[in-house]
Amino acid sequence: MNITLITVGKIKEKYLRDAIDEYRKRLSRYCKLDIVEIQDGKTPDNASLKEEESIKDKEGEGILKYVKDNMYVVALDLKGKMLSSEELSDFVKDLGIKGESNMAFVIGGSLGLSSAVLNRANYKLCFSKMTFPHQLMRVILLEQIYRGFRIMKGEPYHK
């Protein structure tokens, strides 16, 4: 299976880069993983809704450049469906069985995802009603993908 993370913003913090590298190494046993970073738009203080939409649209254009026609796109969205770790594992496994071997998980910037990206998404996934920094969300997502593969293979992992 090929998994691509398309994310807005660069990871500056070493401890987050180290965690991402660790999960990248662990996942190499189960899938091919690519991580694409799109430049985030700078949001001025007191930005208007129109300015925020413009920033999201620009980020969305950058994201969509990396979305291929054959990709099954999962957008992380607060209005998406919440799944348990086991349900996420089954979801990924079922996609593989159906021949969807190219998956893209999309993490937006601080303003969220553009409507164009959400419209292209095949599935919208919500991790929590809480808001997480998009840099940290990358680590959380990779951990859950790794956990999902461990569950799929019947291998032990912390509960």
From TrEMBL:
Signal peptide: none
GO CC entries: cytoplasm
A GO MF term: rRNA (pseudouridine-N3-)-methyltransferase activity
Broad enzyme group: transferase
NCBIfam families for this protein: PRK00103.1-3, tRNA_RlmH_YbeA
Family designation: Belongs to the RNA methyltransferase RlmH family.
PANTHER family reported in the protein's UniProt record: METHYLTRANSFERASE, RIBOSOMAL RNA LARGE SUBUNIT METHYLTRANSFERASE H
Protein name as annotated: Ribosomal RNA large subunit methyltransferase H
Naturally occurring in which organism (per UniProt): Clostridium pasteurianum BC1
